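Quick check before the chapter quiz. The format below is the same one you will see on the exam, so make sure you can read both the input and the output lines.
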Amino acid sequence: MDDVQNQLAKPSSDEVRRLWKMQSLEPLWESPTAHKPDPGPEAAHIWHWSDVRPLIEHAFHETSPAAVERRVLQYIPPRAIEAGEERTVGNLTAALQCLLPGEVARPHRHTMNAVRFVIEEGGVITEVDGKDCPMEYGDLVLTPAWCWHGHRHVGSKPSIWLDVLDVPLHMALGTVVFQPPPMMNMPKTMADAAFMVPNILPVERLETRTHSPIYRYPYSDALKALAVAPASPDGARRVRYANPETGGPAMSLLDSLMIEIDVGTTTLPTRSNASIFCLVVEGEGAVTIGDQTLSFAARDTFTVPPGNWRTMTAISDKVRIYQVSDVDMLQRLGLLREEAGDAA
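Here is the expected output.
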């Protein structure tokens, strides 16, 4: 009789799940992802400049920085995403920002790190914590986390640059903070010239920060470094945009490289669990990412999602590619995994 009563008192599975849900509990064994095999790496995506550039003209007509803070078009690959997801690849959000002559994007600051790489024209000055950083083709400008930064266009032609930020990481961690003007608590900065003598640094430090004291890295300097850089094991040459005080990445969490590949060279396969976004600065070629082979030309951009094998081939002159990734973040957490393969 007791067994019968116990059976009658036992709630149904549906009732059990209703009770769990009332207390905000979910069974792990019914999760679509827990303890399941890795679904494999996400597919890469490429944006061809010949397709994208005409569409930027519409952004100039649709709005202005005065109305929307920043005139930006985000790179969002075609995939199933949740509403409001601002992710280009892994922990990175990439976008195109554009200004017309005479326009000003007012200063603000946020907890997300950002890099700016100039794609078209110049004439823009980005002010970072009070330091003016002219932006010309191929220049890299840093706007590290919690640094005040604004843009003003003093040139005569439209200017376009690549933005890459670690937005998805901060959204996942719940650390997104945005502060509009007026600017306050401006830190003291030191002139870039103080760090321009090779192998010699000033003894004085204004404050301890996790990013480079230099915010602008001219393209001409990157080319000089590439000209004397040794080849990497895969056959390309690589230089890192570095913090002169530490020798490490110029900015915490976002790692920037310039890659150069000689004409006719195909790099050996490499693979990483880092999230990578690439901008072709010069040259034409092809990249194989996983089972996709994508042809590229100057100003094209593409993703290398984690876990994909990658090779690159230069088919005209030298190919130069700006690469930004979350390698530094993974390395700090002890999670970075990188592999090199053999020639096919």
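If your answer matched, good. The first strand starts at residue 46 and ends at 47.
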